[in-house]
Give the backbone structure.
Amino acid sequence: MTTPTGQVVLLGRLREIAGPAHVLTEQACAPYLTDWRKLVTGRALAVVRPATTEQVRDVVRACLEHGAPVVPQGGNTGQVAGATPDDTGRAVVVQMGRMKRIRSIDIENDTLVVEAGCVLQEVQEAAGAAGRLFPLSLGAEGSCLIGGNLATNAGGTQVLRYGNARELTLGLEVVTADGEIWNGLRALRKDNTGYDLRDLYIGSEGTLGIITAATLKLFPLPVAQRTALAAMGGVEQAVALLTRARSVLGADLTGFELMSSVATDLVLRHYPDQRVPLRAGAPWFVLLESSDSESAERAASRFEALLAAAFEAGEIQDAAIAESVAQSRAMWHLRESITLALAAEGKCAKHDISIATSRIPGFVTSTDALLQQRFAGVRSATFGHLGDGNLHYNILQPSGTPATTFVEVQNELSRLVHNAVRDHAGSISAEQGIGGLRTADLQRYEDPVKLDLLRRIKRALDPAGLMNPGKVLP
Amino acid sequence: MTTPTGQVVLLGRLREIAGPAHVLTEQACAPYLTDWRKLVTGRALAVVRPATTEQVRDVVRACLEHGAPVVPQGGNTGQVAGATPDDTGRAVVVQMGRMKRIRSIDIENDTLVVEAGCVLQEVQEAAGAAGRLFPLSLGAEGSCLIGGNLATNAGGTQVLRYGNARELTLGLEVVTADGEIWNGLRALRKDNTGYDLRDLYIGSEGTLGIITAATLKLFPLPVAQRTALAAMGGVEQAVALLTRARSVLGADLTGFELMSSVATDLVLRHYPDQRVPLRAGAPWFVLLESSDSESAERAASRFEALLAAAFEAGEIQDAAIAESVAQSRAMWHLRESITLALAAEGKCAKHDISIATSRIPGFVTSTDALLQQRFAGVRSATFGHLGDGNLHYNILQPSGTPATTFVEVQNELSRLVHNAVRDHAGSISAEQGIGGLRTADLQRYEDPVKLDLLRRIKRALDPAGLMNPGKVLP
């Protein structure tokens, strides 16, 4: 535990390490102390912004010496308050935004070495400038940092083709919880030299160390893409379309997003300039995207054949294929506006769940029914990455009722949803992680054997318990 | 440490658990006590062959109680003696071959749940019977067990398209070193609920627990495949062809194997019925394969266009496209015969290395030259999975010299090769693991920070130190 004198000494040391301009205290810390969803506000001794791996190491060592908790932070765009310090004011937030070099790019090896503070979009652009694709893509890509994407094993919209952040990473550089630098930046596709440290740090949400750089995989840029919006009668039909699209398009299927009409109707209500380019009445929509390595003609003909066959088989009621980049963007914009439309509409209980796709129709039907029995009038604004089995199963307060009434039952409602997820062998955190918000859920829903293993790993790699304490494991 | 009385009690307990017929002792153990390469022979108290996860758990608990080391074993086809007990005779070998159920298959979710004792080929066949592909493929597939493939994170010939065993696995069931069952058989493509235990057990070579079952990913069967053999003047041209093939074929490039003419000439000498269907004289060959999701016509025209462009660009001197399944098999047979031809030819120092593909030409040229300077006359019979940067950089004794002379310098020669690998930021064990044979190399070539982290993980998850002791970490 840091003493008041110790805190002064520590602040002085942090200023020596990073330079006085990069150690923020008091009011200057404020932008870094509230999570993106504005659910949690903490306090900190300081926010330090190191510029090099060695500075990160020295900051961690200084904090260890003074017993100060270390809270790593990227773009602060997480959904589960994983980068927000507690309210004791003892923590040092290590904000990674100054480590923003693209260190190298190797076209023949299809790899890129980036520092943790690069904005995801900058990484995408560096790949694009070299004629390559870095496929990780998500709503916050203009402000999230790649280090945070890796620390949380980010997902997004291209997972069904390219995998999560984990699958896109070959190597890491990490400052360990002991203040050592592990240089694991190998650009290798095969490396069986001991336990898989890389994947242990990826997704550990800053509780085992700080990722300072990474070697990422690059892919060929697609030659052509096609986007369509399809309407259907139920989730079962959407899953049938997914199976068909996988079989017809194989690795060229790069997007498959489900949207309930509850969700799209809310977008239309709150953003009247948007539209659904299909005749009204269908309860469910799928946004699908293909990427072709060959030609626009091939992309178009395969996509049209797929949709025609799905129509023939009764899987879809109607479909619109984007005829221009603008139309494709409008379709994606509809999908990406759902979160904001939900926020504009009222209180919402959010669930980031995944279930085997074959079990999703049953889950949605039975859970929607249970919710109506118990919480009559709530609205299931379900949407998400059906191609990965990942639903944002978000439940809105009933229309015309006070928000406070809903807030009172929100925990009970989420319990009902998560119990149903457990009964369907699913995950209560598909892509957003545990952070500070879901630690109780993790304890409740995970196997005690697994929890015990997680705790042992935490103790083994962070014996002082100072790396992002209270996150993931309570 | 087990006492003699304790050993008798333990044997009795093992017979209760697995049935007397499935606890082998004395001479009956012999087939399980020598590694595949016949480099190491150990001893064991017993070889037990459990039939269920609960039996595996009970065996581990009994061994823990009596302080007996546990050595998990699959098909005993590993290259690094990772499943062979030491010579104290105290260990219990847990042979997984009786746990061979395909537990379930889910076509809509594209997943398969198998027990650890399924032969890899049986897993491939179960997938095929359901109209799906399980792409893990390697020389030993007719006898290796999927549990061993996962414990060693097996690679093989399809990695450049589908990844290693790690990337093909969604969930695991594991008996931990404490004798608990962790049921992590989720069939989910996104699951961020705590640290990545799955990938920690995958590749841990039985030193942290015993994998008893797994949920594996399935893929669409390709509609058509094309195979070709191309001849070229150097490794640089082979890398250029790889870059071109990746860019033209994208995800349809499913095989890219490099072979030196030293290696192919040995096959022709020892297996005179085989042939290289190209005009003689080229020092290097590439075997390449594409898999098309659409049609045989498309597969053929793209493949021909690729090879024509490579010829035009001077990357290849000659090429033969297989015109039948038989011709394609003959090309693969040539590649797969190299290991046996090397064994027939004489003593060989084997190195299973990986290096960023862009650096491989420089590595091969400079290391070949260093070897000739220091060990005049040795023959570099280099071949391997160039598409993954993985070379079997195998060095044969000079022609006409006694094997004993070569054996004397073999360690020094391997040191030279591995030093060169380190200087090229590569790995000294790309796909075969560390096992019992490469523990000293791991200590020599890996970062002390990494080694310290590995040891901590071992202590945390196997506090008694009884799981496959002496493997991976000494």
User: Anything to note?
Assistant: Chain B touches chain A through 92 residues (CB under 8 Å).
